[in-house]
């Protein structure tokens, strides 16, 4: 019998349907894998009783020939999705002990379709970070070994603060590590500036941030409301398509959620690429760019051409303004959203003499360093006298960034191909300790997509010379996720399936 | 633009984040690094450009103006660190 944790989501679905395997078997196999992988720190909470109960119910439905599109499939949930009665803290200390009395729309959609919950996944605190190092629950180790490391060396490092091990990316680092490490078949993630796509690239898996409004944000812990979107991480493009179909959909509880019906994304996988035109934006060719990334990008364009698409140059002249503008818009929205953490209604409360003291002490203790930094930047750019110079200007620049994409799409381009990240995964503790901007630069290729509200998919495109995974990004028209799945699979096929690392951790 | 130590204290208070004096110089450096990073935007010509209000053009949905929620005081209070007689408890606000 093959290892049940090595199946793709689609394979597991088909074998459950044909009753070759049971949901209880596959849930147990994953719970065991999670137990052995504890030291990676991908899960902050495991819910084995819930998983077994849900799996048994799925088996009962499958036995009657019933069941939804995800019936019996075990998945992980990023800690920022509200899950009724289960730890939900966005990996922040300020939400200490919070167990929501309600379920997020996205996770409710997954359970409606039969998915089985294994637990809650680690992440950067409030999704603010690109390495999972800002989590109150500590960093996550990537399942990928650092170049030239032995298994023994890596296992020793797991017990020593994970020093020298690789970051699985962030903010959805628990999700990417768990999916790449075969601790779950797929996972929910979220993306405000690249938090689905950069972890996908770093761990050799697939991630898609859909169009703004494709998934409901109701019940997701808010970071920057005009940028946040839910999306899946999975091991294949087909699996990501299956997950997104269930996660997406209209929701009267989120007024920014699109009423448009959700297409069958899986049907787009394998569709012909004849007649599709791919744009390659020259502004993404940065000065001092890693030659390996540049070569990968050119190879990706060649693959798509070979598969029947035509490739043209496009210009997105405002690209370089996206990252600085993002670091005004996102902190500003965060400072407003996170004002709700007051020590009164939920979460951490510090003893205090008066109400202001209560706020300041609870928030001072509850927020980590990166969150504090961003909340202060946000408060500053929204404060009297600075609002127009910073916030309004950044929102105008956002209009320019979106216009660049609109012009490119109007010129007949169906999707845009770019690198996903400036480099392969870096080590834990390697970046951003002196200057926070060093870490922010990781998102240089991904933030533009959030600023313009567009869908972006990252697919694995091969390995670096050091043997680490690298990804390519495809950017689509609003609500045209289908084209991204078609093109993403072409890249996946051309690059050859990435062999994920063996379980060195236990 | 850059901030001095007193500005850092003022911003922390605006954000209602309690800081120790020892943390302030370090935060000043970090905030100034971020402000210098975003400074490049000052050179962008935004004359006549509308600030973005909605990234995907969408009509705001309307619903009937009726009560759709409520009678769940227990749920609302369930996660509060301190409550009394069905109310949130805060330090004394009015003397």
Question: Care to give the gist of this entry?
Answer:
The complex is a heterodimer of chains A (506) and B (95). Helix content of chain A is 37%, strand content 12%. Chain A has 16 helices and eleven strands.
Based on the model shown, name its key terms.
heterodimer; A: 506 residues; alpha/beta; 8-stranded mixed sheet; 3-stranded mixed sheet; globular; B: 95 residues; mainly alpha; two-stranded antiparallel sheet; 4% strand; flat
Unreliable runs of chain B, pLDDT <50, ≥5 residues? Answer: none
Oligomer state equals: heterodimer
What portion of residues of chain A belong to β-strands? 5-15%
Low-confidence stretches of chain A: none
- The residue-averaged pLDDT of chain B reads 94
pLDDT averaged over residues of chain A:
97
Rg value of chain A: 21 Å
Instruction: Label the structural class of chain A.
Output: alpha/beta
Extended strand count of chain B = 2
Structural class of chain B: mainly alpha
N-to-C CA distance of chain A: 21 Å
In angstroms, what separates the terminal alpha carbons of chain B?
42 Å
